[in-house]
Amino acid sequence: VDVPKATEPQGDSDGPRRGSLCDRHCAAINNVQGDLDDGGCHLHCPRVPAAVSHPPCCQQHSDEVCESCVGKTTLTAENAVEANKLSNNYKFGFKKWKSHVTARPWEDRSEIVKELYSDLNVIRSSGGSTVTCGNVLYLLLFGWWLSLLYVLVAAVMFITILGAPYGRLCWDLAGYFLWPFGKVIQKVEVPKSRRALSVCEAGAEASGVGESSALLGGPVPRRWRPWCWADTGYWRRAGTVAWLCLGYPVLVMAHGLACITAWLLVVLIPVAKLSARTTVRVLLLPPEQVLVRHLRMTEVPLEGEVILCCYRAVNPYYYKYAVDGINVFAVNLLPLVLVTLVLGYVDSHNRLTSSSMKFTLALLSIMPLSYYIGMAIASISAQSNFAVGAVVNATFGSITELTFYITALIKGSREGNRCYAEIVKSALTGTLVGCVLFVPGLCMVIGGIRHQEQRFNSRSAGVSSALLFLSVGGVFAPTLFSKVYGKLVCGECHNVTQNPLGHYLCHNCHFDLMENNGTLYYSHVQPLVYTVSLLLPAAYLIGLFFTLKTHSHIYDIHVSDCHMPGHHHSAVVHWSRWRALVILLLSTLCMSACADLATEHISPILTNSTISQYFIGVTVLAMVPELPEIVNGIQFALLNNLSLSIEIGNCIAVQVCMLQIPILVLFTIFYPTNFTLVFSDLHVYASMFSVVLMNYIFMDGKCDYFQGTVLVMVYFILLAVYFFAPSPSGC
């Protein structure tokens, strides 16, 4: 888009040049309108008069820096660490990461996100009826049995006589937990006769804020700690002893069950907070200090402190919730890893569960581990220099896939089963096809729902496309060579016409490379495989040097850590470099264990399943480890940053061909396996067709949901072909 030059002011020779450049810079940014609010950066350049002030990236720098920013999309980060992470996202070969690696300033967050982390003790103005679908769901899942339990505990406490005050408290809480919405739990003012308690509380409050917890929703003041009542005799009461022995443990277990269940359901995290705060605060208060009131009967300001005030039980935005920078889904799936490892290595004889279940659990455990590996890589790269980031990304970028492939090849070699090698080839092809068709196609469709037309950097996408053409040609060169010079051998042939010169119907045909003691393979195909395995990584390094050093300007990106006035924040990283390194190593170790379990228990699925082994390899084994990357791509697309969505798929596909396959070939030199770089015709045709179609779609640098739908539909058509294809020979 041609932007007219700014009007030249009179009497200033430098004014026209500087004003027009900065004005064009802002016009270019405003032309690419996009707000990456929750993504950790945002496109930002306010309209300012020419020759008066500079764009945000240039506010604190010289005119030469301003001129260097001209025509580039400026991404403004909150701090230098986030700026480094955003810059790494646009570097070829680096892992693209959407989530923050540092804590975001509270004032920069949206109101929706602030509500997720707020305490359940804020009284708001009346927002309508509390009878909603989510609140009714709470009543059906938790409310009725929690209320019934409180009634039973109240009866027990009344029977003890000494615990009658707690019986009245449980009776009030029974009505509260049946329908807590629109009600308030308060801590009433302490009577003068118990001033010592207030002094204790004041001393604890003056000492500062104590523990904090994401589940409780905020800081927990120290005045709620039990030791505060020790000096006043509260814990020496006979009624308190009866309460702690008979009533409190039962309610703690009930609220713990409700808390865990609600937390795992994610959207019901407000219920988890409600139960947790009740357990550690309300139930440990003296009963005479707890008052349950209806909100309509309460006038603001309330007398006393508000402990609990809940309006709705369900919030669909809790998928954004994070604990120490870790997404809530990754937190919830972490116990699955422990369960998988315990069942896999303790129940070796399948007494507790079947091999199919263990395989499924091992495969699902790979997803959170992939997330932790990606988060650790992004954290280390953002806090380190370019060399360290490049080494970490090159070393651990493909560790998830390579771990599974190598363990599968080792098991196949030990059992003498060629099926494992074919499964690995299917998984490699499935990753390539999925990242070329499904990942960008899905991102286009979902991003196209919000944005009518999305644009991306066709030059940077062209580099990945060229490398894909080169890598696909190199990977399948030994296969094409074997088709030309190999001898076609069929397992069984039948004469259809009963004529010796008629037509024959043959089955299980393949090109034999081992004729004459393998002369063709060892003398021609194997040297070609080794040559290709050396050339592909060399081409990958050249691509890195081209995109990161000599032609880095093709990404058209300027990342600035300059802040707007009044928004100066120091970087508070979620994971330090050492912590990220420890998590990276532990996740890699657990990944190896899960991959070993998956390959150990995949045999029954391969032998007893009626589904083609091709289909299992190109779908489950190929795409499940890439789910965190797919989620990142979708989030980038929703924020109108389709360039990164496309680069995620392209980089994975390039790494499959130029790094993972050569590493597997190198591994077979030191540990002989059945893996040969000769693929079936179906893999060759599917891969080449996918790369050609992807390049055709990406030629013009813009796309919409229709083009994304085409890519996704072609991917599903290929999956249908694999589904109905016969199993590979040897399986």
UniProtKB/TrEMBL annotation:
Keyword Repeat: no
Primary location group: membrane
Domain Inner membrane component: start-end pairs: 133-183
Domain Sodium/calcium exchanger membrane region: 359-476, 580-722
Transmembrane annotation, as ranges: 136-159, 241-269, 326-347, 359-380, 386-406, 427-449, 461-481, 528-548, 578-598, 644-670, 682-699, 705-725
Entry annotated with the keyword Transmembrane helix: yes
Keywords, sorted A to Z: Antiport, Calcium, Calcium transport, Ion transport, Membrane, Phosphoprotein, Transmembrane, Transmembrane helix, Transport
GO terms of biological process kind: intracellular calcium ion homeostasis
InterPro entries recorded: CaH_exchang, NaCa_Exmemb, NCX_ion-bd_dom_sf, YccF
Compartments it resides in: Endomembrane system
Any one Pfam family match given in the protein's UniProt record, by short name: Na_Ca_ex
Topology of the protein relative to the lipid bilayer: Multi-pass membrane protein
A cellular component term, taken from the record's GO annotations: vacuolar membrane
One Gene Ontology molecular-function label: calcium:proton antiporter activity
Protein name (record): VNX1 protein
Organism: Steatornis caripensis
